[in-house]
Amino acid sequence: MDVNNIVAKITEMAVEYAPKVLLAILTLLIGFWIIGKIVKVLSRGLERSGMDVSLNKFLCSIASVAMKVMLLLSVAGMFGVNTTSFVAILGALMVGIGMALNGSIGHLASGVMIMLFKPFKVGDLVEIGGGHLGAVEGINAFNTTLATLDNKRIIIANSNVTGNTITNISGQGTVGVELTFGIGYNDSIDEARKIILEVGKSCPHILNDPAQGVVVAELADSSVNLATRPFCQSEHYWDVYFYMQENVKKALDKAGIGIPYPQMDVHMISDN
Fold first, then answer.
1. Helix count and strand count (H, E) for the chain
2. Do β-strands 179-183 and 143-147 pair in parallel, antiparallel, or remain unpaired?
3. What kind of architecture, by CATH, is found in domain 174-254?
4. Taking a C-beta distance cutoff of 8 angstroms, is the pair 145, 157 a contact?
5. What is the pLDDT of residues 170-180, one digit of tens each?
6. May I ask the CATH architecture of the domain 3-100?
């Protein structure tokens, strides 16, 4: 093969494709720079909205990958490559991935709903589904983590969170601690009420407003049940609960007021 012809061919190709290659490289550099800026702006916006850090990074990574794929397809089109087939293949691939990850996508969508509607935030004491009680430790892309009182970790899929009843115990800042104490039918209701209120006043975490009250909640089979609902800051919920349980029992014992247990009176009737 003639060397001159080879050199001429290479020169011709260089002249033809060099501008396209330079333009493609320039497009990629500028495109990646713009994508980086867009992702940073998106991340800051999501952060200001209060979105969880993990979900923030996850959504930003998805946006970054999507924009980079579109950029690469655009650069390929600059060289005359027919991108229609690539788009079709990519679409079919995404449909397949979507079907395979149907459950995971549902969890992700539920996580986004939690972030948008904010039924609770990290640190809140919540009860989910009537059975899972704990402080919210983390809200991630696919699951929510609760820390229980006995230091267990409960991981709940986000779709199960949004699909169940959510009771935010501490989300209002202050919370009422529901307590019930039973006394005997022969004991004084007024004296027991006075004792419960005095114990409440001695607790450093119970608020004065709203004021604590004590009412007769039920005339049960074996006891007269007195209900009280002292209010406190949400972070002191368990402190108040355990303080009242222990100290009311001690004060009632000291006053000679018993907390009855279920019992049955049997009357014997003699024929004689």
1. 7, 10
2. unpaired
3. 2-Layer Sandwich (3.30)
4. no
5. 777 788 899 99
6. Orthogonal Bundle (1.10)
